[in-house]
Amino acid sequence: MLGMPNDLSLWFCHLNEARHLIDNAGLESQNLQGEFSRLLDWVEYHMVMSRFSHRHWYINVESSKETKNLPPIKGLPSCSHEIIRLFYFMFEIIRKPIDLLYHSDEYENSLVCLENKITKIVPLAAEGESDTMSGLSTVWVATIELFKLAALIYLKRASQNFSGSSPQIVAIVERAHIHLDDLETFDSAFPLLIIGCESRIDEQRFRILEHIERTIKSSRLRSLHGLQDVLQQI
């Protein structure tokens, strides 16, 4: 969910209702495994990413109020959820320059603390996998690393309202492309959007658009078509 219309999207309304059903049924208090666990992770992931969409695409005030009233993300026992939980904190703490706390030491310290937490995440092999680099664990590690790198880029840009060139961000983007090369397909829109926007040289732009095109052929996600259009227009 990258773009948002004038009103809350129907997609977000369905997602919010799913979140309420999970809460009312007390599913998170149960030790669910398999498909149910993945379903809960899926809902939490999209609830977190909806905050990004509302922050950058909402138009009316009611959308903003709705986002602020969303329930906090609850911890789930999975490595993937650690980075998603940090995404949630990141979207919550980033201030705009007009905010009174924007230039405070407290705000600066919170950003440094969050950056350190993101950096220190260790992309362990998925549950049930050995520590050896099997095909699945390679995909898992590359996926978590791409989310980490995208988070670090976004944190640098959004928290400082900074759009200029940065050797640090250039280095992060180069690392991200190395991880993308390890994946045949990768369909998570947020990392692709952030990395794609920061791909400033023609070779990088071609590589990420080629990667998205390859992923589209094996995926039914409509959001990838929108992402492709956005990156082609930059």
TrEMBL record:
Pfam families in the record: Fungal_trans_2
Domain of life of the native organism: Eukaryota
Record InterPro entries: Fun_TF (IPR021858)
Name the UniProt record assigns to this protein: Uncharacterized protein
Species this protein is from: Hyphodiscus hymeniophilus
